[in-house]
């Protein structure tokens, strides 16, 4: 790419930079706007002139939301569900993938086919719901942790990662008298740390952002994850009209608050953990997509 | 007999391996295979007391009901149209962006833009739609833009004609950056000497994209296209569920949301299981079909 570049080529570079800057604005603006609105007062929110800086600084939304016990309960439950499902996913996936790498395992082919079938066929939403109901798992913590924790795709990915570990390592461990559980925990897992980290992050983010399972399997609001509390504030609670909300409106007016203060405050609170680890997160996610692509 | 004995002997020697597979096996058996067994209620009059097996067979009753139900047909049509439009607009977007990323010369700038473009991918659907709601309000950003053109404010969320645009454009916004990763990986495999040779030949940048970059991402594109085509009925109904309202059902109601409303809320288990089965059969046919066509046309296929 040295030397003479046509004027057209240079024009394109400029245009491309312009497109990229526009892209950054489009990607970032909504988030900055959410933060700004959460910190502005009702006058400016109603006029709709808040952009990326708060106007008429107001933290009423946050002080309102921090008084709601459901916020804390939602946070705690989201952490329980994310930690639980990720822990079980990593444990059972790494256990299940290991025997599938061993050439003379008698049931290797059976289990591989058993898994692959689930990649093409599934029972669907309603039969799964009926099953969960008949197992009396509705409204339990387990329903948020166990049913989704094994995916055939993950097991096969783990298997192909293990296969890149030299077989000599296992053979010499066998000669030294180690059993397979020891080989997995002392040789394979330490060598799979990057894989485990990547899938831990996949699992945590997926669980943190998920809400539909909770919607259909949990009726007890005391067990709701944060996303459902968020949904309640954003979609079902109406601050603006209805008979019971007059006191609420008076309170909001007195504090120069708009319902959107509260709504955007809880959005900020829900995004906070993801944003905090984002630089780290995105690096591992990119890595994870690559691992998936090599295999898939 | 001797063969059987060695089989069991070997199995006993490998008992640790069986033990390791066991938890995963049980979870998949219960939560993936039992629901498949449950599909038979699509052909039965389901009674919770008598169980799935004990319920009475009714043949194709629910499939005929589906065929005659105008709401269900509208739902099918909506699903298909939303899927096709999403594919048409959403599929090329990350390819174009990846090619543009690839033309950025400053590697720091490139890295920064990429990192920013991935951000929306990590945000939950509930938050995304929450933001869409505030942007589409009367005094929201979108109506500010509308008023720049001197038009009257639009009630976007109750306007059926805006539903697909909102749904697809937010999908693109959320997925375009992250969707470039696989294409960029393919582009990083381009041998730089190819560009040098092209420069000597005096090739324009557009020529280089067409003759060097495109052939490198072609097989990735085709594989992703096969997945997208087979997923055409698999709308992200969780997002629809947050975005739609009875005002927009006429275009927004899709199979997933219909199954949720009629099945889970309305407890019409047999009927919705039948529709779900229909949906998975069609998805499977589409996958096999797309793969077959791709193998014929481009010699790229999944299996």
Automatic annotation (TrEMBL), chain A:
Q: Which residue windows are transmembrane per the record?
A: 12-32, 79-98, 110-129, 141-162, 195-218, 262-281
Q: Name the InterPro entries for this protein.
A: MetI-like, MetI-like_sf
Give any single GO term for biological process: transmembrane transport
The question of whether Transmembrane helix is a record keyword is answered with yes
Residue ranges of domain ABC transmembrane type-1 in the record: 75-281
How would you describe this protein's topology in the membrane? Multi-pass membrane protein
Gene Ontology cellular-component annotations: plasma membrane
For this UniProt record, give its keywords in alphabetical order, as a comma-separated list: Cell membrane, Membrane, Transmembrane, Transmembrane helix, Transport
| Compartments reported by the entry | Cell membrane
> So which domain of life are we looking at?
Bacteria
In terms of one coarse class, where is the protein primarily found? membrane
Q: Which SUPFAM superfamilies does the entry mention?
A: MetI-like (SSF161098)
Q: Name one Pfam family in it.
A: BPD_transp_1
Q: Which PANTHER family match?
A: ABC TRANSPORTER PERMEASE PROTEIN MG189-RELATED-RELATED, POLYGALACTURONAN_RHAMNOGALACTURONAN TRANSPORT SYSTEM PERMEASE PROTEIN YTCP
Family classification: Belongs to the binding-protein-dependent transport system permease family.
Q: What is this protein called?
A: Carbohydrate ABC transporter permease
The scientific name of the source species is Cohnella nanjingensis
